[in-house]
Structures are given as structure tokens and as C-alpha cells.
Design goal:
single chain; about 170 residues; alpha+beta; 10-stranded antiparallel beta sheet; 3 helices; about 35% strand; binds 2-acetamido-2-deoxy-beta-D-glucopyranose; DUF538; DUF538 family protein; signal; At5g01610-like
Length: about 170
């Protein structure tokens, strides 16, 4: 950027910045973001499908703090239904994602925060999902691909609430 400041007329400056914006914007689109998140997950021994397709952007710092931004809150279907909020915060380390905020799982008709996602052993093909008082074992293969995330307006207002949308037909 600093070399551009040699072109002193302000109008030049502006049009060059706009041009750069036009060139750069398409490169930061979802697919690029998504594929590098998948790579990061794989490099940490985690399955690529841990986050849904609708990931818009993410940040990862050197401490392993991961922040993932989605288009909107939504529901993804694994062996179990997982709710993703617009922002998911987690600590990433090898084989483990400690979720601090933004992911919940349906359990006995309640939505409980997902605390921890652990790949016990790559060869066992198992993933443990900890929701605070219980672990659920899921097969690694169910997390191979980022799932489609269905929009679910209003669900975030029902989180932790009573029996809500769609539970009746799952009995
Ligand atoms: C997440 O990482 C931060 C920074 O390393 C740390 O301070 C925090 O205690 C971690 N949280 C959990 C739940 O491990």
C-alpha cells in the first residue's frame, strides 16, 4: 500500500483503492474462507465437516482462539441436530475444539450448549461431543463434509426454553 501513496493526487488514490477493493473482494468470498478453515481443521486432526457450509469468515490467533462467522444462525444435521449461532467461539488444539460460545445440541428435547468436541483416536473413527454432563459418541465419517445449514429464524430466542419448534414429530 505504501508505494501507492507516491501517486499524490487524491482522486488517483481513491480510484486505485476502489480498484483494489473490486479485485480483492471476490477473492475473500466464502469458498476461499471455507476451504482454508477445512484445511486448518484437518491439520488439527479434526473432521472437515465440523462447521457448516455457510461459514462466511473466520479468525484464528496464535493462542488457538478460533472465531467462526456464519451467514445467520442455523441448524445442521449430523447424527444429532446441532444449532450454530452467527458467531461461534472456540479454542482449537490438536484433536480438540473447546467450544466457548455459539453451538448447541438437541438432547432430550432441550438445547444444551456444546462444550467440547474431542476426537479420541483417529483410528477409532469416533468423535465425542460433550454437552456438560454427558458425552455423545458420534462417528467421524458423519463429519466428513460440511453439512448444509438450514436457517431457523427465532430458534435462538427459544434456546434453553421449553419444548419448541418441531419437537413434537420426533417422538
Ligand atoms: C481458551 O484459550 C484462552 C487463551 O489461550 C484461555 O485463556 C482460556 O482459558 C481457554 N478457555 C478454555 C475453556 O479452555
Amino acid at each position: 500500500m505504501s508505494s501507492l501513496s507516491l501517486l499524490t493526487p487524491r482522486s488517483h488514490h481513491l480510484s486505485i483503492s476502489l480498484l483494489l477493493l473490486v479485485i480483492i473482494l471476490p477473492l475473500t468470498a466464502t469458498t476461499a474462507q471455507e476451504s482454508s478453515l477445512l484445511e486448518i481443521l484437518r491439520n488439527h486432526g479434526l473432521p472437515a465437516g465440523l462447521f457448516p457450509q455457510s461459514v462466511k469468515s473466520f479468525k484464528l490467533d496464535q493462542m488457538g482462539r478460533l472465531e467462526v462467522h456464519l451467514d445467520r444462525p442455523c441448524l445442521a444435521q449430523y447424527e444429532t441436530t446441532v444449532f450454530f449461532d452467527t458467531v461461534v467461539k472456540a479454542n482449537l488444539s490438536f484433536g480438540q475444539l473447546k467450544v466457548l460460545q455459539g453451538m448447541s445440541r438437541e438432547e432430550l428435547f432441550l438445547w444444551l450448549p456444546v462444550k467440547d468436541i474431542i476426537v479420541t483416536d483417529q483410528s477409532s473413527g469416533l468423535i465425542l461431543i460433550d454437552i456438560g454432563f454427558a458425552y455423545k459418541r458420534l462417528s467421524f465419517s458423519r463429519f466428513d463434509e460440511p453439512p448444509v445449514c438450514r436457517s431457523h429464524q427465532g430458534l435462538s430466542f427459544r434456546m434453553g426454553g421449553r419444548k419448541g419448534f418441531g419437537f413434537g414429530d420426533q417422538r
